[in-house]
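hey so u asked for the seq, here:
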Amino acid sequence: MNILTFDVEEWFHLLDNDSTRSEEQWLKYEVRIHKNMERIFRILEETNTKATFFIIGWIAKTYPEVVKEIASKYEIGSHTMTHQLVWQQSPEEFKKDVKDSIKLLQDITGQEIKYFRAPGFSIRKSEAWAFEILYDLGIEIDCSVFPAHHAHGGFPEYGEALPKIIEVNGKSIKEFPISCREMGGSPIIYQGGGYFRLFPYHLIKRWARKDKEYLLSYIHPRDLDPDQPIIADLPLARKFKSYVGLKEAEKKLRQFLKDFKFIDIGSANKSIDWNNSQIIIL
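ran it, structure tokens below
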């Protein structure tokens, strides 16, 4: 089972960085979302691939036409309203952030929003309250778990990267975690972002074949944009991770979608026997 997802963000939506943190700062940057989404649409149409799109509410508010076009062709979910790390918010702030994004996406598209992904996979075990809030807001499937230690979050207690059911105070939500691999004793996300751009394709392909039971990939529009500006104040390591491999990323993704058949979350959900899935009680 290979699942393809996109996090619909602008090229400057970089987490935990002073100059890209707030809406006031975002309005100062160049707009690139339209051309980057058109690139994604072309790739998916030419490879006959379905995918699920997690959309930032700010994108929906600022460019509702982008959301309408996505929703006319593909599944959509919430990526919060303001793209902030969950553990930097209080439960009340998180609830409002997600609730506002869900309402906006539903108002624009007329579709019920049942899917969610936290920015930076930033729901940790200590933020188990987030799953309960998601349940209360009508979210049925979450894709926020990174099942290992991670700079922006990490949930090593989750265990093997497979779909499971997370239960908090009797409220259950289905979880599709991000796929990861051990390298040098540390888990890495080879299926998205900087890691997908960094690793040679033959290695990504080999790992993907090993993860044939379950593979979840995620891409940002900026990951395929070699002409995007560089955020000047990023630390050197963040610059490397943010801009490495941009020129070859589109070619790599096209080959990936030709070599492997990908589906969206809705299709994956229907193929899973949830009655026999592991339940994680938090």
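The chain has a mean pLDDT of 93. Residues 202 and 221 are 23 Å apart (CA to CA).
lmk if thats what u needed
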